[in-house]
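Troubleshooting: if your tokenizer reports a length mismatch, compare your output against this known-good record of 285 residues.
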Amino acid sequence: MILAQVVLNGFLIGAVYALFSSGLTLIWGMMNVVNFAHGDFVMIAMYVAFIAFTALHLGPEFFVPLAAMTLFLVGVLAYYGLVRHVMRGPMLAQILGTFGLALVLRYATLWVFSANFVSLPDNLLGDVQTVAGLRLEPSRVVAGIVALVLTIGLHLLLTRTALGSRLLAVAEDRSAAMLVGIRPDPMQALAWGIGAACTGVAGALIALFFYISPMVGESLALIAFVVVCLGGFGSVPGALVAGLTIGVLESLTSFWIGPAFKDVVVFILFLAVLWFRPHGLLGKA
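Known-good structure output:
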């Protein structure tokens, strides 16, 4: 029963990993641009949730959509204000541009909120429940379920809708997409908006049970890059599989060996997979 509890906890946090990583893999798949500000997008969403709760007295049913809309706007502005311009330059310009954006967001937040850790109440969604011998924390259960549903929804949006077809057409061949009447700039801005909105939802959900600080984006960004590389750049299903795998692996490692070693085991798996499949589990060769 203890092992089942550990696996369940890992599955729930892994679903959240998958959601905010899917935003990163969407942007990579659309534009071949690595967003080094991705973790700081999650951090901004966490502060949106915190401010909405403490200052506006809004519950999760309001601050999660608010974080998604805020980060959608941030993503679109980041594209038009920065990414569209650095895409014309070499890869180094793209890397330094998004890394600079990360630093601006991080230190602006540090200036406004200081380095102090803050958090939301543990029982915001209710007290811990025991079902069939499993201890269920409502905040983690809701976060895991919502993240899983939205990640699957993002995959269906890309593969089963006309909008998704236009997004993928621009990703496949920008020039050919223009020939059939698709304007690449709005599609790429939309991709940034959707990717950032995914981080917005994930950040607000993580804020329900995780500490909030201006530096939290660093550790979350590292997780996102590992998930995306492991699953395959540009593959939302790959991000889902990798996110769930890493979540469960972290949980099992913490249980069997100790919390201090969970990152070590994850990176050993990561390196082993990339040794045999450099394009990731579900990425295209």
